[in-house]
Specification:
The complex is a heterodimer of chains A (about 350) and B (about 525). Chain A is mainly alpha-helical. In chain A, strands 1-2 form a two-stranded antiparallel sheet. In chain A, a hairpin with a 2-residue loop joins β1 and β2. In chain A, about 70% of the residues lie in helices and about 0% in strands. Chain A has a domain of about 210 residues. In chain A, α3 runs parallel beside α8. The relative contact order of chain A is 0.18. Chain B is an alpha/beta fold. In chain B, about 30% of the residues lie in helices and about 25% in strands. In chain B, the strands form five sheets. A six-stranded mixed β-sheet of chain B has the order 6-7-8-3-9-10, sandwiched between helices. A six-stranded mixed β-sheet of chain B has the order 16-19-20-13-21-22, with helices on both faces. In chain B, β19, α16 and β20 form a beta-alpha-beta unit. The two termini of chain B are about 20 Å apart. Classes of the chains: A mainly alpha (about 350), B alpha/beta (about 525).
Chain lengths: ~350, ~525
């Protein structure tokens, strides 16, 4: 039997099969776009789509880390709003205060994540409710700060917005920043000791505990890293948006969850792919852009995200994996502990 | 074989019942009758089909063939509610209480709707009910969770009796009971029998059950070995009927030991919620078995050693103290658990075979924090080949493997670590096909010969007899017997499990006499 191990690495048999549907769906979406809304694929459209894809992708990577620990993070819009307002408020529009503003933005993002993580990971509270509550607190504080400070000086420092408008190899600099971060997360999860343990803890925290891993630390880490990634998304979004308005970041409650689900992550934890999540973020942004071009109101995009989550849950991830898994089971011996009557 | 020992008519009639779970034939053409006023004991080893038979009789399990009649009416839809309506009450081994609710509320919920009092009078009603069953020491207002295990068991029986059943099924009712509680329970059972209830009493404790039963039916491998008058059958005859499974199993050679008598793992005064105090030791190169009927603390003892269960007492491994507060602590001392609950505690079902195998050795495989895929695969393949894991690819989810191969993967995982000194194997071959069993036995034996210590907790006496160098038998949380290598055999182990040396049997004689 050992001989069989060496050769069949790339057959459909693998754990990665759950991530296939998002690529197929994105391809199909492109084809549909060519027919019904070709304008969505023109280069003027791409210069809009790619930066927003990147912001969504990075927020989704944060959400993905939380989903990998079998949680859901609803504090995303709060952290992004806080981050954007801090950039404008602390820098007061001047370039030389920009580094301080960015550091504060990232620091507060990680701090909010840490608070979430301590409540969920250490105190074992429900992630949905904790992150919703923490997110609301952050949002409330942000809207006060926004009214008191940011409304008078809503502009993002020129250095950030001109960097965000800049191009490298003809493509948005924001896009490249997103690609680099996606690869870093993907490689860390795949090859680093910590990343691998992180996956194991998410896949089955009880078994990880029995195996001697420090389960709680990884859960806290997931939320903290997620908060940091939301803050990064906030910096990029601030750069793209040029000025901060009161609704800054509000679109990022459902969209990152949609991207993670469509990308094929297991909501029970453990399995997710950073690259697929990036592709899903692209598909969602493209879809929104298509709908706008076709004349649907921007409010309809929430309906699209909602529907995308449902369809994603129906079509990808666990279902695909179990379907392929059943095909795969070698025919041998009686199945263990089958309890249903024949 | 003999006719009914008591006067009343047949209240439970099981005819030609067969039931298979997958490839396992749990029951084969079983016939059992229980008459009104009779205590009918049902005995057999772990896994002989007792629980399945109770399940069929109580409507929880639909048989493949055969019929069940309760009070003369045939069970048609095989639903617990139907069985209950026809007059069957059952007291489960792992109780059906809602622990947050009070005793009165638990009784209220268990009562049939027509005999429920007005909600406001529940307290007084519950007190009367408890008085009827001579359970005055249980406070009606106490939360069920605050009762002792013995009290919970008695409450479970009281709940089953609330429906005024014609036939009462008791599943291992004395597992958690001390001598006085056994006496109290038996008094209750006999009083019910005198009042005309037919009682089916499942137990592995032969002396206890023989003291109250009129008749005894023996099950082995799902086949009835006959029904006997309790007064005219000896314990040894029953044991002879219970053992002798037909399954052919091969075991690896024990090999030469003797010179290696160095103590590796020493446990002294270890006690937890369901066991203790336990004193034992494991020598280098030795496989020690833990036997006992299910629910006698073997599992908790093993898990406490691995740091999964709270326990007090001292454990040392190779002279160093083992920190049993967490699995991490136990592992640092070289003690690893091979959990029997693979899905929940051993495997990462959605992750690949590769990731499952190497999860505990990532640091050793890494260079500068990076786990090289090639090094990882080489480490895995060697073990996977040795254990003969059957799989399509190293990247397939481990949940898509068969049970036996899943078990091999979780075994391989702990073996990859170089610093393991003691392996604690909980039901290492449960749900594992026969071919894989031998591979697992062989690896455990090979590890022992390398100088490790192994503890195997198994509910299968045959497995323990074949694999182990000596076997400890646990009853009510304590080790009651140690069986040395030269005495090991299925019969010897079963005798020890069911035998009269089990604590608390002396009290049975004091119970009120058997009904006519």
């Amino acid at each position: 039997m050992a001989k069989a191990i060496g050769r069949k690495f790339t057959t459909g048999a693998s754990v990665a099969s759950r991530f296939i549907p998002v690529w197929v769906a994105t391809g199909a979406l492109m084809v549909v776009a060519v027919v019904v809304a070709p304008a969505a694929l023109r280069s003027t459209s791409w210069s809009f789509v790619l930066p927003f894809t990147t912001v969504l992708a990075i927020a989704s990577l944060g959400q993905m880390l939380v989903v990998m620990q079998a949680g859901i993070d609803l504090s995303t819009p709060g952290v992004i709003a806080l981050g954007g307002n801090l950039i404008a408020g602390l820098s007061a529009g001047s370039d030389h205060k920009l580094p301080v503003a960015i550091i504060a933005c990232l620091g507060f993002g990680a701090l909010v994540g840490l608070v979430n993580g301590l409540f969920v990971g250490l105190l074992r509270l429900n992630s949905l409710i904790v992150t919703l509550a923490v997110g609301q607190v952050v949002l409330a504080w942000t809207s006060k700060y926004s009214r008191d400070v940011v409304t008078n000086q809503p502009n993002v420092p020129g250095a950030l917005s001109s960097w965000a408008a800049g191009r490298f190899l003809g493509i948005s600099a924001v896009f490249w920043a997103g690609v680099v971060m996606t690869l870093v997360v993907a490689l860390a999860l795949r090859y680093s000791v910590g990343g691998r343990r992180f996956q194991a803890v998410g896949a089955n925290s009880t078994a990880a505990w029995v195996a001697g891993l420090h389960v709680r630390a990884y859960a806290v880490l997931a939320y903290t890293a997620a908060g940091l990634l939301y803050a990064v998304a906030a910096v990029l979004l601030a750069g793209v948006s040029v000025s901060i308005d009161p609704s800054f970041g509000s679109a990022y409650l459902l969209a990152p969850i949609a991207a993670v689900v469509i990308a094929g992550a297991s909501l029970a934890g453990g399995l997710a792919s950073a690259v697929s999540t990036w592709v899903a973020a692209l598909a969602l942004t493209l879809l929104t852009q298509m709908l706008v071009i076709m004349g649907l109101s921007s409010a309809m995009q929430y309906a699209v995200f909602g529907a995308a989550i449902i369809v994603g849950m129906l079509l990808s991830g666990d279902r695909v994996a179990s379907l392929l898994g059943r095909r795969l089971r070698p025919a041998q011996g009686p199945p263990a502990r089958q309890t249903s009557p024949q | 074989m003999s006719g009914p020992g008591a006067t009343g008519g047949v209240v439970l009639r099981v005819r030609g019942v067969s039931k298979a779970f997958g490839a396992v034939q749990a029951l084969r053409d079983v016939n059992v009758d229980c008459c009104a006023g009779e205590v009918h004991a049902l005995v057999g080893e772990n896994g002989s089909g007792k629980s399945t038979l109770l399940g069929v009789a109580s409507g929880a399990v639909a048989p493949d063939q055969g019929t069940v009649e309760i009070g003369g009416c045939q069970l048609r839809r095989h639903l617990p509610a139907e069985a209950r309506r026809l007059g069957l009450g059952i007291a489960y081994q792992d109780f059906s209480h809602l622990l947050e609710l009070s005793v009165a509320e638990n009784l209220y919920l268990a009562a049939p709707s027509q005999s429920r009092p007005a909600y406001g009078r529940m307290g007084a009603w519950a007190k009367t009910v408890l008085g009827q069953f001579n359970l005055d020491d249980i406070a009606a207002s106490a939360p069920a969770g605050s009762l002792s295990l013995a009290q919970r068991q008695l409450l479970e029986v009281a709940k089953a009796l609330l429906t005024r059943p014609k036939v009462l099924l008791l599943d291992e009712p004395t597992t958690a009971l001390g001598p006085e509680a056994v006496e109290q329970l038996h008094a209750l059972v006999l009083a019910q029998a005198r009042a005309g209830v037919g009682v089916v009493y499942v137990s592995h404790r032969l002396p206890e059950v023989l003291a109250v039963a009129n008749r005894v039916t023996v099950l082995r491998d799902g086949v009835s070995q006959g029904t006997f008058e309790a007064a005219s059958v000896a314990e040894e005859q029953l044991v002879a009927l219970m053992i002798g499974r037909s399954l052919q199993l091969a075991f690896p050679e024990r090999g030469l030991r003797g010179s290696q008598q160095e103590v590796l793992l020493a446990v002294s005064g270890l006690r937890g919620e369901r066991f203790g105090p336990v004193d034992m030791c494991v020598h280098k190169g030795e496989i020690v078995g833990i036997a006992g009927a299910e629910g006698n603390g073997q599992l908790q003892f093993l898990r406490a050693l691995a740091g999964l269960e709270q326990a007090a007492g001292s454990v040392t491994c190779a002279g160093a103290k083992v920190d049993t507060r967490s699995p991490f602590g136990a592992m640092r001392a070289g003690v690893v658990l091979l959990s029997g609950d693979r899905k929940r505690e051993a495997l990462f079902p959605v992750l690949s075979v590769r990731a499952n195998t190497t999860v505990q050795v990532l640091r050793q495989l890494a260079r500068f924090g990076v786990v090289g895929r090639g090094r990882e695969l080489r480490a895995m393949e060697e073990l996977v080949g040795r254990l003969r894991v059957r799989m399509g690819s190293a990247e397939q989810p481990v949940q898509s493997l068969s049970g036996g191969n899943q078990q091999k993967v979780s075994l391989a995982r702990s073996l990859l670590r170089g610093d393991v000194k003691v392996i604690l194997a909980e039901e290492p071959t449960q749900g594992v096909d026969v071919a894989s069993r031998f591979d697992i036995y062989q690896v455990l034996r090979a590890k022992a010969q390398e100088g490790l210590g192994v503890i195997v907790k198994s509910s299968d006496p045959l497995e323990l007899a074949g694999l182990c160098d000596r076997v400890l038998v646990m009853s009510r949380g304590r080790t009651v017997q140690e069986i040395p290598a030269h005495e090991l055999g299925e019969r010897r182990i079963v005798e020890a499990i069911v035998g009269s040396r089990a604590v608390g049997t002396a009290a049975v004689g004091a119970a009120p006499g058997r009904p006519a």
